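Q: My collaborator sent me two sequences in one message, no labels, and asked for predicted structures for both. Can we handle them in order? The first one she listed is below.
A: Yes, handling them in the order given. First sequence, followed by its C-alpha cells:
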Amino acid sequence: MTSGQRLRQLANVFNASTPLGLLLAVCARTTVRRGPRGLLLATGYRWRLPSASAFTVGNVVVFRASPADALGNPVLLGHEERHSTQYAWCLGMPFLPLYFLAAAWSLWLTGNPGSANLFERHAGLQAGGYPPARSLDFSKNNSERPAGTAGWNEE
C-alpha cells in the first residue's frame, strides 16, 4: 500500500465512513475480506437498494458479485476506489448528501444520475457503467433548455 492509500484508509476509519460501511456489510450479510490498496470487499450483497452492481461506503466496496468476480473487474474496482478517496476528501459522511445532490442535478440535467454527477465524472463514467454526458449546449433551441437555465451559453 502506498502512503496515500494508507492515509485514505486511516482518514475513512476516523471519519466513520468505513465503520458505517462495515456495519452495512454485516447487516446485509455479505462476506467481507481484505482487498487491494487498503480496500475491504463486501461481496454477495442482495438488498434491493441501491440497485448498482457495486457501491462504496468509506473503504468498503460492496459488490453484488462473488469475490472472484469482484476482483476480476479491476476497472470497476478502480472506479469504486476513487469513490473511497472522495469520502476521505469530503471528511466522511458529508460525501453522502453531496453525492445525492450531484446525482439529483445530473438526473435533472441529463436524465440519468451519473453523467453530469461531479463525483461519478471524477471516478470515471465508463468505468462505473454510466453513459457519457450529453452536450449541455442549449443555445440552439430555447425550447430544449431545462427550466431555470436561461442565459446558459448565451453571447
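Q: And the one she listed second?
A: Here it is, processed independently of the first:
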Amino acid sequence: MARPTMRWAAAPWVHTEGIGSAFVDTPFAALKSGNASSTGSSGADQMTDAPKLHREPPISPHLLTGGLISPPLWRWHITMLTSILHRVTGMALYVGALIAAAWAIALAQGPEQYAQFKGLLGSLPGKVVMFGLTLSLFYHLANGVRHLVWDTGHGLDVKSANASAVLVLAFAAAATLAVWGIAGMTGAI
C-alpha cells in the first residue's frame, strides 16, 4: 500500500518519511529520488537516477601504472613519508625493547655476561643500532606529539601538515645528534 506524499509549500525542508521526519535540514527538492518521491515508495521503484556502471576498484598508491619501468601511480610527498616512518620507527622501538630486556638479563646474570653485552653494544654495529634506536625514539616521540595536535583539529591543512613534517624530521635529527654529541664529550661512547 503506497503512502500519499505531502508537499509543504511553507516549509520546504520538511519531509514525511523516516525517523525524525519533523526536522530535516535538506531542502525538499534534494530529497527527490527518481519516481520514488512523486509516486510513493514501492519496492520496484529505482532509488536514484545514477546509471549502474561497473567501476574498477581503486589502485593502491604503491603500485606502478604500466610495469617496472613506469612511474609510480602517486607522487610521493612528505606527509606520506612521515606516516611510513612512524610505523617503521614504532617497529624499531619494539626491537629496542628487546635489546633493553637483553641488557637487563645480562645485568642479572653477572659481570662476565654484562661485559660481553657491553662489548657487543660498544662495537661499531652495536653503535649503529643504538644510533638508529635513538633516532627512532626521537622521531616517534615528535611525530606522536604531532598526531596529538592533529587530534585537537589543528594543523590538518596541507601547508601546516607539511611544515610540521619538516619540523618533526628536524627535531629528530637535532635531538639525536645532541644526545650522541653529549655522550661523546662525556666519554660514554
